[in-house]
Design brief:
Elements lengths: L15 E10 L2 E11 L4 E5 L6 H9 L6 E6 L2 E2 L10 E4 L11 H5 L1 H5 L4 H14 L16 H14 L4 E5 L7 H18 L2 E6 L2 H7 L2 E6 L2 E6 L1 H6 L4 H6 L4 E8 L2 E4 L5 E2 L12 E6 L5 E2 L8 E13 L2 E8 L2 E8 L11 E6 L5 E3 L2
Parallel strand pairs: 3-8, 3-9, 6-7, 7-8
Antiparallel strand pairs: 1-2, 1-4, 4-5, 9-10, 11-12, 11-14, 12-13, 14-20, 15-19, 16-17, 16-19, 17-18
Helix pairs in contact: 4-5
The structure holds adenosine-5'-triphosphate.
Adenosine-5'-triphosphate binds next to helix 1.
């Protein structure tokens, strides 16, 4: 029998609900008009550029700040003014705030000690949690300052789990780590999320991190949540130019409507466009084409749209190659798998093209 997931169950009450949440600092709204339902057990990531309000939002969710307007409810109970220690939530920081003179085990089981749990049970639970975060058993008595950055991050995670929170908040916990370790921990966090079934709310300005781990991503800009959706929705159907450019390298062409059809503003030519998603009647628009949907057109090959330019640069992206093609003043990006690499070198004249169905048309 098929199991119904929580996300599919329409009656599932959101674990956290935000309605009209706003945070003012003096006359400045750092967070504005946030409406958001967080589903139980989901991995939700809030991304956005520096200063867009991510930390302010997370601080209100964790109880370290109160909203100036609006309501935050946890399982239907209003928690606007509930202090952090009374919430069934836990915050994992980038700066780990571990106890430097204590061992790994003591750090992890601190919450249990406060609750008055006896030493033998604390040790048992600490070892269980160490197994979950993949720390070796013999680290139990090791001084936490003798652990590496990645190991300390795991200790911090295990310590957060020891509180047995319903919701875990993560404030850029991986940003101080080197690339390889970060990649490994991203995958482990995703596994941990699945294994524990807890609700994770994560903030980062790395969209790559968000894409790897999240069930849903919320994109913030200037205090507002401009789009919330699955990674595929955010990448494949961005609501505006800001989101489309934030979620990756894209080609953007400005176009205007003429009697003859759509004419390029910043590149020469006329173009066939896919209709805007909301059916808006636009006189000017942006066409957004992801580099992987652009292709080189050889003799006898065609596409709905074509531009002529010169190869300007070529970069290896591992399994793919990215070409920069100069078209007039504009640089367009074309990405091919290594197997289909273009043999033409720098400065060669090329024709690039794309089909209307592979691009999207946005009004702003
Ligand atoms: P980053 O990615 O750089 O951490 P962020 O998206 O988390 O940025 P916030 O830290 O939430 O952004 O800040 C949002 C805006 O609110 C910024 O303009 C910031 O200067 C302002 N702000 C944050 N906290 C305060 C405060 N206590 N007093 C005044 N302004 C604040």
């Amino acid at each position: 029998m098929l199991q119904t997931t929580l996300a599919d169950a329409p009656s599932a009450l959101p674990i956290l609900q935000l309605v009209g949440v706003r945070k003012m600092f003096g006359g400045f709204a750092a967070v504005e008009g946030i409406d958001l339902d967080v589903r139980e057990g989901e991995f939700l990531t809030i991304v956005g550029p520096s200063g867009s309000g991510k930390t302010t939002l997370l601080r209100m969710l964790a109880g370290m700040d109160t909203p100036s307007e609006g309501n935050i409810t946890l399982r239907g109970e209003l928690i606007n003014d509930m202090p952090p220690n009374r919430r069934p939530t836990c915050l994992v920081f980038q700066s780990l705030a571990l106890f430097p003179h204590k061992s790994v085990g003591e750090n992890i089981s601190f919450a249990l000690k406060v609750k008055g749990v006896d030493a033998a049970s604390r040790r048992k639970r600490a070892l269980e949690l160490m197994r979950i975060v993949r720390l070796p058993e013999n680290y139990h008595d090791k001084n936490v300052m003798k652990c590496s950055g990645g190991e300390r991050q795991r200790v911090a995670l295990a310590r957060a789990f020891a509180y047995d929170p319903e919701v875990l908040f993560f404030d850029e916990p991986l940003s101080a780590l080197d690339y390889k370790l970060k990649k490994a921990l991203e995958k482990e966090l995703k596994d941990l999320h699945r294994e524990t079934g807890k609700t994770f709310i994560y903030i980062t300005h790395s969209l790559e991190e968000a894409m790897v781990m999240s069930d849903r991503i919320g994109v913030m800009r200037a205090g507002r949540l401009v789009q919330v959706g699955t990674p595929e929705e955010i990448y494949g159907a961005p609501v505006d130019r800001f989101v489309s450019e934030f979620v990756g390298e894209v080609n953007t062409i400005g176009v205007k409507r003429t009697d003859a059809g759509w004419e390029g503003i910043d590149v020469p030519g006329s173009f066939v466009l896919s209709p805007p998603k909301d059916g808006a009647q636009l006189d000017e628009a942006f066409v957004v084409i992801r580099p992987e949907y652009m292709r080189f057109l050889g003799a006898g090959e065609s596409a709905d749209n074509a531009l002529t330019g010169t190869v300007y640069n070529e970069y290896s992206l591992g399994s793919r190659i990215q070409y920069q093609v100069r078209v007039g003043e504009k640089v367009m990006l074309v990405e091919l798998s290594r197997a289909r690499a273009l043999l033409a070198g720098a400065s060669s004249e090329v024709t690039i093209g794309w089909d209307a169905a592979d691009a999207f048309t946005l009004g702003s």
